[in-house]
Amino acid sequence: MEIQADIIEFKVPVENNKTLFVWNILPGPSEVWVYESVYAAFSHFGALFSVRICPNAAVVHPGYYAIVKFYSAAHAGRAQEATNNTGVFQEAPLKVRLCTQQNPSFLQNVRPLSSTKCYDLANYYLGFNGWSLRIVMMKDISQLDEKENLSLLEEVQTPTLKYGCIVELIFTEHQVRCRGYGVAQEFVEKDADPLEKITKRAKLQKWAKERAVADAFQRVLLIVLGNGKVAVECRPDPDAIVPDDEASGIIQVADITWSQFDPEDDDDELLADITLNLTSES
């Protein structure tokens, strides 16, 4: 008997078969109530990346439609089959379809999950005790940056605070480990208040860790079998991070753009990027 497997990556899901379009949602006591009802109904089938509730256009009858994104194509498929043409949380039946087409350029813009989303997804499939995280190194690398850009610093007279972090994910039960690294930097005035500098240092350390965590999870693959068991694999890292005994030296972090790890950018896609084929009423 063949056991099918679903591969879960720690990336923002953009595939058609992971995105559901839900309409014919009746007005509820409030938009918050509608959101919570939709979220509860579909999270029953698997981990959700996002739920977006939108009011119907003025020319249509009052109500809402929703965009529901799953991490798993299998979960999205089961949810579509189970909820289409059923009331679920209302008297009128919902209409639920898998998205059929998306903007090709949008599909190529695959972004990593924020650290918070990574935690939630790992906990969902592995449990709170199924994995752990340790900080290998947290280092102020401002001086390294200053040495490389001394002439520029002398010109603008604005020093840079810069922190680098290395973290390691540990999946003991699966005998898998992988590392990630992150960098955060910010300009600070030379005559800035000492308390302001301390606050910025704490903030940069937090950001560096979050980006390192997000980077580490990009190497992780969760293989979910049809029987519910989960296996963990780590993709090899071509830019291997130095071992512990060498980490006190230097981190190779030049020319890396970390804006892609901004946790506020997880779900900023436009609804115009999603189109559906609604000719079938099966």
Helix content: 25-40%
- Specify the overall morphology: globular
What structural class do the secondary elements suggest? alpha+beta
Strand content: 25-35%
Uncertain stretches of 5 or more adjacent residues? 248-275, 277-282
What's the Cα radius of gyration?
Answer: 23 Å
Count every beta strand, where a strand is a DSSP E run of 2 or more residues.
12
Number of domains: 2
Task: Give average pLDDT, whole number.
Answer: 80
- Order of strands across the main sheet: 3-4-2-5
Number of helices: 7
Polypeptide structure, described:
The chain has 282 residues and is an alpha+beta fold. It is 28% helix and 28% strand. The protein has a four-stranded antiparallel beta sheet, covered by helices on one side. The chain has a three-stranded antiparallel beta sheet with strand order 1-10-11, with no helix packed on it. The two termini are 30 Å apart. This is RAD52 motif-containing protein 1. GO terms for molecular function: DNA binding; RNA binding. It is found in: Cytoplasm; Nucleus, Nucleolus.
Features:
282 residues, alpha+beta, Alpha-Beta Plaits, 2 domains, four-stranded antiparallel β-sheet, 7 helices, 12 strands, 28% helix, RNA-binding, RBD_domain_sf, DNA binding, RDM1_RRM, RNA binding
